[in-house]
Amino acid sequence: xxxxxxxxxxxxxxxxxxxxxxxxxxxxxxxxxxxxxxxxxxxxxxxxxxxxxxxxxxxxxxxxxxxxxxxxxxxxxxxxxxxxxxxxxxxxxxxxxxxxxxxxxxxxxxxxxxxxxxxxxxxxxxxxxxxxxxxxxxxxxxxxxxxxxxxxxxxxxxxxxxxxxxxxxxxxxxxxxxxxxxxxxxxxxxxxxxxxxxxxxxxxxxxxxxxxxxxxxxxxxxxxxxxxxxxxxxxxxxxxxxxxxxxxxxxxxxxxxxxxxxxxxxxxxxxxxxxxxxxxxxxxxxxxxxxxxxxxxxxxxxxxxxxxxxxxxxxxxxxxxxxxxxxxxxxxxxxxxxxxxxxxxxxxxxxxxxxxxxxxxxxxxxxxxxxxxxxxxxxxxxxxxxxxxxxxxxxxxxxxxxxxxxxxxxxxxxxxxxxxxxxxxxxxxxxxxxxxxxxxxxxxxxxxxxxxxxxxxxxxxxxxxxxxxxxxxxxxxxxxxxxxxxxxxx
Length: 490
Ligand code: NAD
Prior knowledge:
alpha/beta, Aldehyde Dehydrogenase, Chain A, domain 1, Aldehyde Dehydrogenase, Chain A, domain 2, 2 domains, seven-stranded mixed beta sheet, six-stranded mixed beta sheet, globular, binds nicotinamide-adenine-dinucleotide
């Protein structure tokens, strides 16, 4: 059993109450790590440490260029420790080692990109229409940022928040998911090693309703960056509303992967697999609705089911495996319950639809389920598992109507050789991210996020750093005018 401590004000610490909780390995179902169960008192200590660090000269007076250098050093340390971080994450959340290694190989880019932006956040001098006034704007950091992280990609979802927040000069308290905290604690040690002053980055581990709720409702937290489910987000919205804290929400999706008759068949089949079976469907951008045009439908379904039959379910630490387990026993139960309901409502299982035989752990087979009716629960609601709901359409108008027929708007995939059609769909589909003839591509430079039930705010790209700032407007009176009539607006 691995024993972990959390990081508050530069010191490794247990929960003040001494309480702990266990993290289980989804591949075996066995407990493997023991973690501090932070409560409101621990969270308060972490937030106060972050607030003090924000105001202390060691951070507040650090130049933006120096912050960039620290971030670059952190990126180098992540690169140097990538193998260990990837393995920790795979053990904790059951994600394929192939995928966690791939994510870790790219992760330093988020730090390098934010590092480059740190000293390029410029305000402007305004050509003001008042005589003898010099007016300029300055992007200023907001203060303490709370980052709330889910279990599916802990390090990636931490990096995409932490790097821009630090580049802008903020301090943070990170709360990982209770199901996958270990890799973020190891990462916290690298933050320390990189040389960030104590208190600039704090990590508290604990349960959502305890540490999570205490953190998002803490009055000293000025900005919350949340990734997780819509139900939890509603609590977070209420908590931040009380304190007027700024908020970004990266929630789930029910993303449409749309295959037209003229699509490259092999590419579209690979795109469908990448969309829903990669990460066992536990991806916010999962292409969980497969919309396929009538003319290619039979060939596509035959090719996809043949491809599904070749997917190797297995130990996520084995590089030969294509699909690992669900990250939690509860997630497996959700998948099974939603599948049973879909079948009861008349959907037809074309592949999978059950746990694989002879395996411990929380595995579920890659599943394809044909749905005639777009109002079925399985078509409307996020499963967060390897289940693709298949729908047939006749023409572009119907494809668009189906694609836009949910309350989510996170991502969409379009498979066609017709460039004009690709652009039309990209323009008209309701989604924050649109991929044409590709899927699940990410970059530090490209914003990610959605609207509707998928949340608001964007992570990644230049704007993401500005989102961790407040624009300050400064007026300087250049004249000797002693203000004249004080009862008049100037
Ligand atoms: P979750 O909402 O259950 O938990 C997310 C985080 O919120 C965890 O750290 C949890 O401890 C914390 N939390 C729980 N209750 C809280 C409360 N009352 N106050 C504050 N924090 C609280 O989500 P999950 O099950 O960990 O992750 C799955 C969900 O996340 C899915 O819906 C998925 O689509 C979404 N997700 C979205 C993205 C994206 O970028 N859009 C990425 C990954 C996951």
